[in-house]
Backbone:
């Protein structure tokens, strides 16, 4: 079953209103309204695209160790996934799919990084619950997401809904701004050029990790000799 098929099955159960979720129709309607408005805003079209230069960044992993995009790119291409947070079931299902695809990414010399506005303690929880062997980097105030054109401010009515649901994003993120990144996926070549970009303002829609493999294969085909040797497991 594809990742999107799994997400669609979860969405159908979640929105049906029965147990174990028992979500009132008004909640679903509010979420649909917010998604429709974000789509209509055209925000996704303004995000970085294939052919653009990826912004460089240094972010901390869940244990407080800095991770540099430049250092990772010196070894091979990058796969980036912008992750909303541990509270988002769609995001967690995607992380699990990325983990399953990780051996294919690594076989092509790529590093996989997730980027989230949540605090390190919540990222540690995400890593543990989803059994991840790749890091979730903390992006305070969604600064890197903003550099990629992904950050958006939640409308007031959605903020009130999240508060009613006890989904306290300021506590999750250590940031009072009530902003989120649109879910997005990038493949970045070693020269910093974005080779693949997928941005969707509908958080229930996610690409299959295999969709990124063609771009990674193209990136590997032009790796410098030293990086190609490292990707192949050489010294």
Residues:
């Amino acid at each position: 079953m594809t990742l999107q098929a799994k997400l669609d099955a979860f969405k159908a159960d979640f929105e049906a209103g029965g147990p174990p979720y028992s979500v009132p129709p008004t909640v679903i309607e509010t979420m649909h309204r917010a998604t429709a408005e974000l789509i209509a805003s055209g925000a996704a079209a303004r995000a970085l695209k294939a052919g653009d230069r990826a912004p460089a960044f240094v972010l901390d992993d869940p244990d407080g160790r800095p991770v540099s995009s430049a250092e990772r790119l010196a070894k091979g291409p990058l796969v980036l996934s912008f992750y909303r947070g541990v509270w988002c079931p769609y995001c967690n299902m995607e992380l699990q799919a990325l983990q399953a695809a990780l051996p294919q990414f690594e076989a092509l010399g790529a590093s996989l990084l997730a980027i989230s506005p949540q605090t390190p303690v919540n990222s540690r929880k995400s890593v543990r619950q989803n059994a991840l062997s790749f890091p979730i980097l903390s992006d305070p105030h969604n600064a890197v997401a903003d550099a990629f054109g992904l950050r958006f401010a939640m409308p007031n009515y959605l903020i009130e809904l999240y508060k009613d649901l006890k989904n306290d994003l300021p506590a999750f993120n250590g940031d009072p701004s009530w902003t989120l990144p649109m879910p997005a996926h990038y493949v970045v070549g070693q020269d910093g050029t974005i080779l693949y970009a997928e941005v969707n303002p509908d958080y229930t829609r996610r690409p299959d990790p295999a969709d990124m493999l063609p771009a990674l294969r193209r990136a590997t085909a032009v790796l410098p000799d030293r990086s190609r040797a490292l990707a192949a497991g050489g010294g």
Remarks:
- Residues 89-107 form the longest helix (19 residues).
- The beta strands are 58-60, 66-68, 78-82, 111-116, 136-138, 151-153, 179-181, 184-188, 194-199.
